[in-house]
Specification:
This protein is of the alpha+beta class. The chain contains six helices and 14 strands. The chain has helices spanning 2-20, 83-95, 128-135, 150-163, 224-229, 266-269, and strands spanning 41-50, 53-56, 61-64, 67-68, 100-110, 116-121, 139-140, 173-174, 184-198, 201-206, 210-214, 234-243, 253-256, 263-265.
Length: 272
């Protein structure tokens, strides 16, 4: 009886924990944009590192395609806002299904850290990336050629943004707000000043010292007239911010974007 009561309490705790995350939306499990009829393999998760990286029982590290979670504490860097909450939500969702998952591999199989790239699904068909995005605890990011489910992920994130949940509960940072040491994944707003081509691709110059580059191999994905129409407007951008090597006067940051979902007019991107 004691064991049975303990088990019931534990299951109730898990259920309540999931319920505390306002972004959890079981309807996404049945959204055609988010579902898959075929899986490449089934596996069991042995460890959740953060909101976008898990380890399987066979030792493989899996990087969840299409999302970026805040960084947990590492080296001497403290955990970013919502990092532990995103990790714990992923752990909770997995625990409800004994950590079993189905994987849909990316067209690009591994990232530069040799992690396997995949979309993860619970046994009931729930797309884990979509659930995390709907919670507002992670950000959407599309990196070609792994763009499958991008539409689903954009839609899931928009729900969180419009509900002002998690990462979207505060104001979006402007480039003007950042000091020169700011790096890592960012969602930012700034004015687009100009565009010009070079041997390395298309360069977009933004206010406050940011240079965006779209490499030649990704230019075909972009609507050039639309990009041109953004000049002189405030845009929302997302990607990994880097300090620029050998910057010229006024230059501060560099970011490479690879997909049209990484840049949009601010008022359209934030419209609900």
């Amino acid at each position: 009886m004691k064991k049975s009561a303990t088990r019931r309490f534990f299951l109730l705790y898990l259920t309540c924990l999931v319920g505390l995350f306002a972004g959890y939306d079981s309807a996404l499990a049945y959204d055609p944009l988010c579902s898959s009829a075929d899986y490449d393999e089934s596996a069991t998760v042995s460890y959740v590192h953060d909101g976008d990286t898990v380890k399987l029982e066979d030792g493989r590290k899996i990087r969840l395609i299409g999302i970026n979670a805040p960084e947990v504490a590492h080296d001497e860097h403290p955990a970013e806002a919502f990092a532990l909450t995103a990790r714990d939500l992923l752990r909770t969702l997995l625990s409800k299904h004994e950590n079993r998952v189905n994987l849909v591999h990316g067209q690009e199989a591994q990232d530069h850290y040799q992690r396997t790239l995949a979309h993860l699904f619970l046994p009931d068909g729930t797309n884990l990336q979509a659930q995390l995005l709907a919670s507002g605890l992670v950000s959407a990011i599309t990196i070609p050629p792994n763009s499958h489910f991008s539409g689903c992920y954009q839609q899931a994130e928009k729900r969180a943004l419009c509900a002002q949940q998690g990462l979207w509960s505060g104001k979006i940072s402007s480039l003007a707000d950042l000091d020169d040491s700011a790096t890592g994944f960012r969602v930012l707003k700034a004015g687009l000043v100009s565009m010009q081509s070079s041997s390395k691709g298309l360069w977009l110059t933004l206010e406050h010292g940011l240079s965006l580059r779209i490499a030649h191999q990704h230019l075909a994905l972009f609507d050039m007239p639309k990009l041109q129409s953004l000049i002189g407007k405030s845009v929302l951008i997302r990607g990994w911010l880097q300090t620029k090597n050998n910057p010229k006067a006024g230059e501060r940051f560099y970011m490479q974007i690879k997909h049209p979902t990484a840049i949009d007019e601010e008022k359209i991107a934030l419209k609900c």
